[in-house]
Amino acid sequence: MGHRIWIMAMLFAVLCPNAAGQSEAERLRIVATTTQAADLMRILSADIHGLSLTALMGPGVDPHLYQPTEADIAAMNAAQMVVYSGLRLEGQFDTVFSALAEQGITIYALGALVKDAGFIIGGFDLSETLVNVDDPHFWFDPLNWQLSAEGLAGALAALDPANAAAYLANAAAYIEELQRLYEWADAGLRSIAEGQRYLVTSHDAFQYFGGVFSWRLQAIQGLSTEDEAGVGDIQDTVDFVIENDIPVLFVESSVPPDTIEAVIAAARAQGRDVRIGIRELFGDAMGEPDAFGGTYIGMLAQNALTIMQSYQCMGVAVEIGAWPPGLNPEPPEEIWNADCDA
Ligand SMILES: [Zn+2]
Question: Rg of the Cα trace of the chain?
Fold first, then answer.
């Protein structure tokens, strides 16, 4: 008898929150794959009632390698829309996405409008031959991210017409913030002399960042982390660092640091004063949700600050402009003030 009551209680506990809350709390279920996609969804759906958001990938997760779990697949199956980055960033999701699309679930790629507008950069594979692939890291250009905000707001408005005006207003306000972020980062990053603007990283995530802010790039690995870096890739990067007299190299938060450390060790063995950036750069994943780098604006600002401050610490002239008044989140003291000995 006791056993039976226990089971009834379990059933009650499991069923009741859904039965009571489904119509309002979960009118619209949306799943976002990457940390950037989840951040944009949160911003555009602010103050919309009855919308639930499930974010699949956490901070520091590499989206090229991430395999959807059973819980992820269940969440996507139960959703009306899945928002993803696209251009094959989520390399392990192809079959899941086609199955979901067949069921009539909206699969929305944030890269779609950027690609339609012609702002997608082609990529090189590891053998340095131009291959016909789209570089998926389009969000590192904040002007591209404005297009993603516009496109996603349109998709949400179509899915949920009753709240269309709110999605579009949220997007318009956010696009203005992204413009102010872009102008601040652009002025600072361009204050470094043109011949000294080199961004050396573990994998090729920063072509768009380099493109929009006029920095030259070198990466040990290609566009995806799916292929392993070889000895030749490391030697090429050592040569590049020595030839161009580059004082600082950067580790990405979503990629292990060992290849960058190998390059630094080899360059130092040849008598060069090379060091690692004062902080990791956010590559394909943003920071912890409550940290400054846990939002797109904070992530991009922290990357820009980390690059500018790391060069400043090596004696390079940099002018970091005042933070745009009212732009949130504001960099905390420990990010705004560089610790060159970190
Ligand atoms: Zn990547």
Answer: 22
Q: Report the alpha-carbon distance of residue 168 to residue 177 in Å, rounded.
A: 14
CB 18 within 8 A of CB 123: no
Q: What pLDDT score does 152 carry?
A: 98
Residues 6+ apart with CB under 8 A from 328: 177, 297
The CA 266 to ligand 1 mean position distance, Å, reads 25
pLDDT at res. 97: 96
pLDDT at 25: 63
How many angstroms separate the alpha carbon of residue 285 from the centre of ligand 1?
A: 9
Cα(202)–Cα(227) distance, integer angstroms: 12
Tokens (6 digits) for 95: 């079959």
Residues of the chain with pLDDT under 70: 1-25, 123-132, 223-229
Can you list the alpha helix ranges (DSSP code H) found in 130-163? Answer: 142-159
Q: How many whole angstroms from 171 Cα to the centroid of ligand 1?
A: 26
Q: From the CA of 272, how far away is ligand 1's center (Å)?
A: 29
The pLDDT value recorded for residue 203 is: 79
Evaluate if pTM is beyond 0.85. Answer: yes
Angle between helices 35-44 and 296-313 (to 10 degrees): 130
Answer for the pair 39, 295: CB distance below 8 angstroms, yes or no. yes
Query: In angstroms, what is the span from residue 254 Cα to ligand 1's centroid?
Result: 9
Identify the pLDDT of residue 2: 46
Q: What is the dihedral of CA 257, 261, 263, 265, to 10 degrees?
A: -170
